[in-house]
Each structure stands twice: as structure tokens, then as C-alpha cells.
Amino acid sequence: MEQLFMELEKMESVSCGDDYMHIITADGDKIIKISDLAKAITDGEFIKAGANGKIGFITDNPDKGLRNSIFRGKCLGDSLTAEQAAAIKAGTFQDMFVGDYWTIGGVNYRIAHLDYWLRCGDAECTKHHAVIVPDTCLYNAQMHNTASGQYEAGAANTTEGGYIGSDMYKTGLNQAKAIINEAFGADHILSHRELLVNAVTNGKPSNHAWYDSTVELMNECMVYGSYIFTPACDGTFISYRYTIDKSQLALFALRPDLICNRAYWWLRDVVSGAYFANVTWNGDAHCNNASDASGVRPAFGIC
User: Mind spelling out the 3-state secondary structure of the chain?
Assistant: First the structure.
């Protein structure tokens, strides 16, 4: 048999169109189209593993560290299926990688991290989950509302009460929560505990508490991998930068170009007595007046 194969003409490339391969199976000799084989390899989550060069399945090793280190970018459909929900609940995340997305209502909802909040919180998060971030802003809103709905100078720009005291937290995220509940079903939205700033002194975060959380603005660490504008400790005053969201989301670590979506969008970090952090249309790590209207691009978990 080997000699027979050696006598055949050798090829240096194949077409994914009409070319076929000869496969010897337990049920006899068969052929398979190259394009179908390629699809089977992709959908079957094959990887080349080990120094021995053997081919194995990622599904045989569903380690989240592996999945969180691979950007795939595959469309997972226009709704969360029962099979997908079951894979998330079981923590296998079969056929899911960072960068994969659902397109629902014209919005790409992209997987940003797997099990980001697992084991965190004053009440431990025990549910497996996928953190989702939309590619685009869902709408624009102010951190501190004004009667005009537009930027107003002076006292209209305040970070008093921190993120928890903001109009964004109180009511501004209600529309996002409704959109997300409609897209994925309220029963699939993860509720976990978050440590959030609720007081500001001299323009610096000065207190915090644990809160139930479903849909929130991201912080600087989740996006950039570090704080940029949030005030640091100065040797006397301890700025309240405590957070469980202390690591960069895998999506933005693997594809930093996806941070910039050519729009202004809010982060939840207090920068001063008047400014919250944000990302600008040109990708600039920035901050802006609390009464400015900027994009709402929140993060949430599905489970």
C-alpha cells in the first residue's frame, strides 16, 4: 500500500474547491472533499499538540487558559442556542473562543473573556460564564444628566458619589439592560458581586461597597490592562482603586485594535471631581466632563 502511494504524483498545494482526499476508514476506503475536511477540522477544534506533533482536540482539553489565548472571530449565529448555553453552563465552552460573536439586532456581541469573574466577590461567583462586549456602542448617554441632555458647564460636571452616584448607574444603563435581556434572555444574564466606588473626596475615589451586578460600564483595567487616569495613592491618601476587574479582558489583549470603535465611549472610573474616564473616537485613552454625552459600551456575562 505504501509503495502504491509513493508512485502517485505528488502535490504541493490543494484546492478547497473540488479537490478530494482518499481516506482509509474502519468502514472501508472513502473520499472527502478538501473543503469539508477543512470545515471538520475547524468545527472539531483540532490543534497540533505536543513535541510529538500529534493532532488532538481542544475539546479533549477544554482549559479556559487555552481558549482565552486564542482569537478566532467566528460568528456563532443570531441567537444563543440551547447547546451553546449548556456548554457555557458546563464550563466546557465547546466551539467558543475569544472573539467569537453573535449578531443580534444589528449588533455584534463578542466574547471578551471566559470565566473572568469566577471565584470572585464577597459572595463567590460560582457560575461559569462568558463575558460579552458589543463591538459598537448601544447608544449615547451622560454620566451626569442635565436638563438639556447636552454638555453644560459648571456644577453639571460632577463625580460626587462615584460611579454608584452617577445618573449612568442609576438610570442610564436601563436601556442597555433591556436591549441585552432581549438579545440573550434575562435568565442567561450573569448576576455577580462587584466592588464599586460610591464616594469621592477632593476628586479622588474615597469609598466603595459590594453591589449586585449584571450590566456595567468597563473600567480602565479591563480595557487597557492598567489604570491610566484614575487617581493613585499619594503616600497620604489611599485612593479607592480596589476592584475585582483587575485584569485586561482577553479580547483587548489579543486584539487591541478592537478597543477603538471610532466612537467616544464611557468607562466607570472617577478621574477628578468633574471627569470620568473614557475612550475617544481615535483610540485615545482619555477622560471627559460628566455631563458630556458619550457611548454606552458595557460588559456583561452570559451563563
Answer: CHHHHHCCCCCCCCCCCCCEEEEEECCEEEEEEHHHHHHHHHHCCEEECCCCCCEEEHHHCCCHHHHCCCECCCECCCCCCHHHHHHHHHCCCCCCCECCEEEECCEEEEEEEECCCCCCCCCCCCCCCEEEEECCCCCEEECCCCCCCCCCCHHHCCCCCHHHHCHHHHHHCHHHHHHHHHHHCHHHECCEEEEEEEEEECCEEEEEEEEEECEECCCHHHHHCCCCCCCCCCCCCCCCCCCCCCCCCHHHHHCHHHCCCCCCEEEEEECCCCEEEEECCCCCEEEEECCCEEECCCEEEEC
Which pTM value belongs to this model?
Answer: 0.85
Reported as a single tens digit per residue, the pLDDT across 54-77 is 656 665 556 778 889 989 999 999
Q: What is the pLDDT of residue 111?
A: 98
101-115 mean pLDDT: 98
For 172, counting Cβ atoms within 10 Å of its Cβ (0-12 exposed, 13-18 middle, 19+ buried), the class is buried
Q: What are 24-62's pLDDT values in tens digits?
A: 778 888 888 877 776 666 666 666 555 566 656 665 556
The whole-angstrom separation of Cα 43 and Cα 46 is: 8
